[in-house]
């Protein structure tokens, strides 16, 4: 199936050379520059081989409408967001397709507050793009590029200022880390060593050639698990290519599941950094809600999409939360998904509790979650969702984002992806067999409707 361009709150993404081209990147950069107004705009990218080409296109588009590109180079997505706020730039552009395969790339647009554009502002930007009425400048007014000095320092200092870095350093943890040959290959060893850790890396060449599937799902972490056991590490961390998602394996090499990353981070924030509401999206595990309930704080669920979670967090004054894909969000550091904040807080939890990561995991209620997807053309998704709503109309249902159905002690969530031409299915139940049975049942229903 030919891959089509995806445009929405997750930016503009597609397969480079098919739906996504340098011409398209330059045009969207012109639209963004017109949208935010003349001034400085941060530009960062991940390690994908197409990143430098698209960076040139974005720079040209920004310059053509009078914006001064500030080049951050290869940096984690959360770093670019932190920099945008700290530099008082007009906005930022991140060139990354995050967890998508390497043939994909994307532009993600950041406002002057260091936040991704929400749905309303994304629609406004798209209107500017379609109208094509760009505020082009004459040759003498085209600004020169500049380089952002030491882009990692501000971000990492914010993380180290939030946690008890001395307590973590004192434990001298041995940490295995899988960087997926992404941005972490350039920055994560230094980050962990500053926390006193001995680092044992894998997939740490910044080539953008992914030697495992880029999503840090349990089935993709065999190498990290083996490395953790082989070297007697206290914990293993896995990042996605742009460094905003975090998965964990325990000291025995067993993957904990991405949702448990968020649950552990939420526990530590509530125990050491102050009480307050917790916000996650609809596909996040019940285990995170259990942690919030145990601490007696409010718990809010939102639509899928980082900016939807962030907006709800800022509205209710949340202290932590995130997305169930391993996207830890701690607003006191910066309101965005951040694998570096996640690593620091989990290490702080281990240091202050004196417990192994496997014991800490066992202290969180256990559920079994399965994630799957069915490839569909975008125009079929609404009909599929309508059919599922009719089939389960007598059950407890949440239609905030797709179809979320609770069936006693288990649930499933079906929704069109924001980033791929697929319908995503998430299922959670108290045990594997029940989850597998429910997942097979719902997936068969979706496939029958495609």
CATH level-4 homologous superfamily of the largest domain: Alpha-D-Glucose-1,6-Bisphosphate, subunit A, domain 3
CATH class of the largest domain: Alpha Beta
What structural class do you assign from the helix and strand content? Answer: alpha/beta
**Average residue-wise pLDDT:** 95
Uncertain spans: none
- What about the largest sheet? 7 strands, mixed
CATH third-level topology of the largest domain? Alpha-D-Glucose-1,6-Bisphosphate, Chain A, domain 3
How far from one another are the termini?
14 Å
Overall description:
- The structure is a single chain.
- The protein is α/β, with parallel strands linked by helices and 450 residues long.
- It has 15 helices and 21 strands.
- A 7-stranded mixed β-sheet has the order 1-2-6-5-3-4-7, sandwiched between helices.
- A hairpin with a 2-residue loop joins β1 and β2.
Give a quick rundown of the structure.
This protein has 450 residues and is an alpha/beta fold. The chain has helices at residues 22-36, 51-64, 77-87, 119-131, 151-162, 165-171, 184-194, 222-230, 258-272, 286-294, 306-316, 339-353, 357-362, 381-391, 432-449; strands at 6-8, 11-15, 40-45, 68-74, 91-95, 104-110, 146-147, 174-178, 198-202, 235-239, 246-249, 278-281, 299-302, 320-323, 327-330, 334-337, 368-375, 396-398, 403-407, 410-416, 422-429.
């Amino acid at each position: 199936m030919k891959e089509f361009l995806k445009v929405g709150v997750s930016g503009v993404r597609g397969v480079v050379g098919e739906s996504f081209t340098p011409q398209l990147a330059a045009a969207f950069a012109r639209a963004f520059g017109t949208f935010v107004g003349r001034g400085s705009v941060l530009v960062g990218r991940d390690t994908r081989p197409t990143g430098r080409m698209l960076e040139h296109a974005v720079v040209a588009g920004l310059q053509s409408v009078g914006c001064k590109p500030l080049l951050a180079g290869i940096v984690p997505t959360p770093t670019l967001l932190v920099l945008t706020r700290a530099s008082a730039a007009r906005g930022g552009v991140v060139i990354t397709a995050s967890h998508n395969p390497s043939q994909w790339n994307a532009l993600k647009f950041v406002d002057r507050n260091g936040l991704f554009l929400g749905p309303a502002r994304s629609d406004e930007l798209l209107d500017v793009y379609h109208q094509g009425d760009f505020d082009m400048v004459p040759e003498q007014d085209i600004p020169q590029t500049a380089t952002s000095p030491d882009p990692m320092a501000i971000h990492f200092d914010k993380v180290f200022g939030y946690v008890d870095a001395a307590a973590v350093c004192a434990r001298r943890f041995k940490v295995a880390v899988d960087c997926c040959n992404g941005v972490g290959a350039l920055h994560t060893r230094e980050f962990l060593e500053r926390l006193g850790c001995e680092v044992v890396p894998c997939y740490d060449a910044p080539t953008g050639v992914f030697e495992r599937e880029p999503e840090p799902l349990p089935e993709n972490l065999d190498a990290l698990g083996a490395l953790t056991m082989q070297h007697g590490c206290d914990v293993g961390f896995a990042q996605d290519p742009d460094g905003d998602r975090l998965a964990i394996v325990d000291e025995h090499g067993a993957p904990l599941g991405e949702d448990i990353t968020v649950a552990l981070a939420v526990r530590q924030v509530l125990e050491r950094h102050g009480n307050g509401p917790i916000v996650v999206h609809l596909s996040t595990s019940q285990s995170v809600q259990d942690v919030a309930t145990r601490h007696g704080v409010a718990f809010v669920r939102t639509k899928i999409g980082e900016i939807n979670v962030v907006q709800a967090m800022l509205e209710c004054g949340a202290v932590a939360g995130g997305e169930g894909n391993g996207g830890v969000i701690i607003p006191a550091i910066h309101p965005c998904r951040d694998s570096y904040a996640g690593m620091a807080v989990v290490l702080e939890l281990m240091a202050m509790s004196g417990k192994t990561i496997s014991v800490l995991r066992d202290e969180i209620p256990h559920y079994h979650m399965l994630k799957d997807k069915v490839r569909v053309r975008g125009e079929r998704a609404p009909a599929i969702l309508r059919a599922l709503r009719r089939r389960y109309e007598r059950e407890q249902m949440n239609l905030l984002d797709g179809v979320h159905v609770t069936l006693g002690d288990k649930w499933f969530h079906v929704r069109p992806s924001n980033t791929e031409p697929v319908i995503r299915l998430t299922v959670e139940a108290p045990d594997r067999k029940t989850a597998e049975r429910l997942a097979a049942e719902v997936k068969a229903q979706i496939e029958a409707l495609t």
